[in-house]
Design brief:
The complex is a heterodimer of chains A (401) and B (103). With 401 residues, chain A is an alpha/beta fold. In chain A, 25% of the residues lie in helices and 29% in strands. In chain A, strands 3-2-1-7-19 form a five-stranded parallel beta sheet. In chain B, β5 and β6 form a beta hairpin. Classes of the chains: A alpha/beta (401), B mainly beta (103).
Chain lengths: 401, 103
């Protein structure tokens, strides 16, 4: 059999399936997903509506059918034979492929301590249903991990009036992905909203009614959620002998070390122009890598060059980050009515921007910043700091130059 | 068709949009680069996000969350994940005032 097989039916795998058709690929497309439902969006999982966890399909069954995508739910790949060009699924069937995409995603990192089995994960629809069904008003929830997922979940639970504690091993929450200024603002917001923080604390044990910290103190908890990051799902690739590291290693075109096998999304660690491999965990990245991989599987030769971008909604605040801000960058602050923007310059060149404000009020500025980054501008820091300078004007003059 | 007064033209930035709420519904009113005005349903057809928070470039508005895009003159969905067109409503400028017909 010819055709393209996609392993993983999350945002990335599903987007890739449709993008193959958009790239005019006419062979068979098989999308294999481990979960029983139609492919669904994960971002809404931490935002229940009227108490119910949302199940928002990425596409209708009819759309899959209309695009000629053969969707196989409830199945995973158990063995990849890259030399033979076949993959064996969990029900024993063997699919041969012309090209294969690994979009296996990532899975929550499990905490290692006594009582770890009592900690709930927060990744899938089933996980979200479990957490929100057990976290009722009057219950106390402890979230281990003060990263984006932990903080978003804390905000959702506080919105329901549930007592929340966050236990974080680092001295501050959100230290990994969020620029320091905005991490501090969000931390303060959570404190205002009544979240209890236990920072710089490891976990010694989880019991039926508490999280015991490394210093012996106890955080009372009826429900414990572990949100300490994810690990890329690379077992299939590893067993098949593909090059792996912090993800399935790919070149700049999303090709793995095995012929005709591509990887994209949360599971892929992509070679960078400056050396090394980087793996991203975001909704937009899952989609943009899917699109590049699909085009390349259909015969194109496009490097993956998209600027990384993500958002996080906590309470009434919306954070958006474009590019990869680094502490070594020169940061330029612009204060606006509804919030703050920060631009990051590397040797004068704009390489990243972040904004935190009410709702999506800064989204258009971040979008403009993203286009300015792509345009390769080196703007005057004084002008960047001035809210009177319209970024759209700056972009137009950069494009005209 | 009954016209209602929504705002002043000067309330909207050129190549910009504002949110307009009326009778419990939400709309977006746009001012094009040529000062023409348009009105569409206020929420993205992909997820309930206010489009007036999105970036307007030429005659395109981009959803501030998922980057779906629409031609706000016709409501046509131009870019995924938006695939359903936006409803549009007549809009006009009379003596510096923007009027829309939402009926």
């Amino acid at each position: 059999m010819d055709g393209i097989v996609i392993i993983g039916a999350g945002e990335c795998g599903t987007r890739a399936a449709f993008a193959l058709r958009e790239a005019a690929y006419s062979g068979s497309v098989t999308l294999v997903g481990a979960e029983p439902h139609l492919p669904y969006e994960r971002p809404p999982l931490s935002k229940p509506v009227d108490g119910a966890v949302q199940m928002k399909p990425i596409c209708a069954a009819e759309a899959l059918e209309a695009a000629g995508i053969d969707y196989l739910p409830g199945l995973s790949a158990s063995k990849l034979y890259a030399d033979a060009g076949t993959v064996t699924l969990s029900d024993g069937r063997v699919l041969s492929y012309e090209k294969l995409l690994l979009a296996t995603g990532a899975r929550p990192r499990r905490i290692a301590c006594v009582g770890a089995e009592l900690a709930l994960d927060f990744r899938t629809h089933a996980d979200a249903k479990m957490v929100f069904s057990r976290a009722e008003v009057g219950k106390r929830v402890a979230i281990i991990g003060g990263g984006l997922i932990g903080m978003e979940l804390a905000a959702a639970l506080r919105g329901k009036g549930i007592a929340v504690s966050i236990v974080e091993a680092a001295p501050k929450p959100l230290g990994r992905a969020v620029p320091e200024r905005f991490a501090a603002t969000l931390h303060a917001k959570h404190l205002d909203e009544g979240v209890h923080f236990h920072l710089g604390q490891g976990v010694a044990e989880i019991t039926d009614n508490a999280v015991v910290l490394a210093d012996g103190s106890e955080v009372p908890a009826d429900v414990v959620v572990a949100a300490i990051g994810v690990l890329p799902d690379i077992a299939l690739a590893e067993a098949a002998g593909l090059a792996t590291g912090n993800g399935v290693l790919t070149d700049g075109f999303l090709r793995t070390s095995a012929p005709d096998v591509f990887a994209a999304g949360d599971c892929a660690a992509v070679a960078q122009p400056g050396g090394g491999h980087v793996r991203f965990e975001s909704w937009r990245n899952a989609r943009t890598q899917a699109e590049t991989a699909a085009r390349n599987m259909a015969g194109a030769n496009d490097p993956f060059t998209a600027i990384h971008w993500f958002w996080s909604d906590q309470y009434d605040l919306g954070l958006q980050v474009a590019g990869l801000p680094q502490p070594a960058h020169q940061s330029v602050l612009r204060s606006l009515g509804g919030g703050e923007l920060e631009f990051y310059l590397d040797d004068g060149r704009l390489v990243a921007a972040a904004g935190l404000g009410i709702g999506n009020s800064l989204a258009k500025e971040i979008k403009l910043a993203e286009m300015l980054i792509a345009a390769g501008v080196s703007p005057d820091p004084v002008a960047l700091a001035d809210p009177g300078l319209n970024l759209k004007t700056l972009l137009k003059s950069a494009r005209a130059a | 068709m009954s016209w209602i007064s929504a705002c002043k033209l000067d309330d909207i930035e050129q190549e910009g949009a504002i949110r307009f709420d009326h009778n419990g519904r939400t709309y977006a009113i746009y001012r094009g680069p040529d000062d023409s005005v348009y009105c569409t349903a206020g929420l993205c057809t992909h997820e309930a996000i206010h489009l007036a928070d999105g970036l307007v470039m030429d005659f395109e508005v981009e959803c501030p969350k998922h980057s779906g895009a629409f031609d706000y003159r016709t409501g046509e969905a131009l870019r995924l994940p938006a695939c359903e067109n936006l409803k549009t409503y007549p809009a006009e400028v009379v003596d510096g005032e923007v009027r829309v017909a939402l009926g």
